[in-house]
Amino acid sequence: MHTTMFVNLPVADVDRSREFFGSLGYSFNERFSSDNAVTVVLGDNHFVMLLAREAFDSLHPVRTADASTKECVVCLGVDSRAAVDALVDRAIAAGGTEGDAEDHGTMYGRSYNDLDGHSWQIFWIDSAAAP
């Protein structure tokens, strides 16, 4: 149904966000980046655009939530339990804060909050055991 996905999130400092997500191993789509935004590549045609708060605020006439009000949780699947731990551990080492963890045997996940307080849930599902 959809060919491309962009999640837009406000950030306090675009350069700091670029450094944070770069340290986690993400690449960037420079075509959609500028002084006011950095576009993080999540997968084929899946992106998160981190916009300077002023640029984000200009998109819509409603008040922008800050991280004290949860606007969403971005959930991203990875290939293994080890990949969950590796990514979340890198995020915490880079200055993010640890969130919750769940282990249901065939589904495992951990979360972190980035430098602006946005929640990222990283999960793995054992597809062989899934119904």
Automatic annotation (TrEMBL):
Residues 1-125 form the VOC domain. Coiled coil: none annotated. SUPFAM superfamilies: Glyoxalase/Bleomycin resistance protein/Dihydroxybiphenyl dioxygenase. InterPro entries: Glyas_Bleomycin-R_OHBP_Dase, Glyoxy/Ble-like_N, VOC_core. This is Glyoxalase. It comes from Mycobacterium yunnanensis. The lineage of its organism: Bacteria, Bacillati, Actinomycetota, Actinomycetes, Mycobacteriales.
